[in-house]
Amino acid sequence: MNQKLILNSALASAMSLGLVGQAAAADDMAKGDKAKEKCYGVAKAGQNDCANLSGTHACAGMSKVDGSPDDWKYVAKGTCKEMKGLTAEEAKAKLKPKKS
Q: How many CB atoms lie under 10 A from the CB of residue 10?
């Protein structure tokens, strides 16, 4: 029983490192390519580039709906506003619950 727990823990750790590595690689790619920026609210369902703002998923291609302000795609720098997209700050503000 103890060996099974150790094996499952090791497997879970290895899998989570893979997800973190993918997210880091996507951010590194964007930082290396100065001609791209994150644009929130423009990704089609299943076509987001990485983790969303709320943390409900941590991988590319996992968005559930078109145009969610929670999900983003890399776009050519300067084109996000033309696409009616949001910056990270604007997306966070839009996701914040309104006080009544």
A: 10
Cα torsion 92, 88, 22, 82: sign: positive
Query: How confident is the prediction along the chain (100 residues), in pLDDT tens digits per residue?
Result: 577 767 666 666 666 665 555 555 556 555 555 799 999 999 999 999 999 999 999 999 999 999 999 999 999 999 999 999 999 999 999 988 777 6
Phi-psi region of 78 (alpha: psi -120 to 50; beta: other; left: phi over 0): left
What is d(CA 13, CA 61) in angstroms, rounded to the nearest whole number? Answer: 22
- For the residues of 46-76, what is the DSSP string, one character each? T---S--TTSS--STT---STT-TT-EEEEE
